[in-house]
């Protein structure tokens, strides 16, 4: 690193001060679809300017580590295709490996006729997507500390017990992360109940960490 410092007075600053500069330069607006392929649908903020990142390799790596360590990566349920890890962009994998916080946005649409159907015949968006993301985070998210669970539920009159089947994969992460409730959207008369059920479910997972 000594040669970099000689060439860049910026690197002569204390790291804490450089981090404050990076924080100041990070945008506050979300950045949607930072990569062409899933699973990351958005960052909750934008990274420092590209021209700063291109100053030198060391600064680029430092900014990337700093940014991915503070940004929230958002994964949103995809219903129209099943993605595989072979299609994940290498930079997306780097982000997942360095991230400390991920938000999983579950999109539920459970027709009443589906409730009594065998679980294996449910749409992949509900019986497979979350399990795939949890497996990815277990394998790659070595720095992960927090998982936010958000739900967009357009189902009506479906018992909570049926919905918990969709959430079961989260238990694989219970020894690794702390869970938080995120944004809950549902039919007016069901939203408050869903928020309460999810909150209790996640609190129980957090208790089982110890």
UniProtKB/TrEMBL annotation:
Q: Which domain of life is it from?
A: Eukaryota
Q: Which InterPro entries match?
A: AN11006-like (IPR038883)
Write down what this protein is called. Answer: Uncharacterized protein
């Amino acid at each position: 690193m000594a040669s970099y410092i000689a060439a860049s007075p910026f690197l002569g600053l204390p790291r804490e001060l450089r981090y404050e500069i990076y924080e100041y330069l990070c945008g506050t607006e979300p950045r949607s679809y930072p990569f062409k392929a899933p699973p990351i649908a958005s960052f909750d903020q934008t990274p420092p300017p590209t021209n700063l990142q291109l100053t030198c390799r060391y600064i680029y790596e430092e900014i990337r580590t700093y940014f991915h360590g503070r940004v929230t990566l958002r994964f949103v349920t995809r219903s129209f295709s099943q993605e595989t890890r072979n299609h994940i962009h290498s930079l997306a994998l780097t982000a997942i490996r360095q991230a400390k916080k991920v938000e999983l946005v579950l999109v539920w649409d459970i027709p009443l006729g589906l409730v009594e159907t065998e679980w294996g015949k449910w749409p992949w968006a509900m019986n497979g997507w979350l399990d795939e993301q949890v497996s990815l985070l277990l394998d790659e998210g070595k720095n992960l500390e927090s998982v936010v669970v958000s739900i967009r539920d357009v189902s009506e009159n479906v018992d909570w017990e049926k919905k918990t089947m969709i959430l079961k994969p989260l238990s694989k992460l219970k020894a690794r992360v702390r869970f938080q409730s995120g944004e809950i959207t549902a039919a007016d008369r069901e939203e408050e109940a869903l928020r309460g059920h999810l909150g209790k479910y996640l609190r129980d997972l957090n208790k089982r960490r110890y």
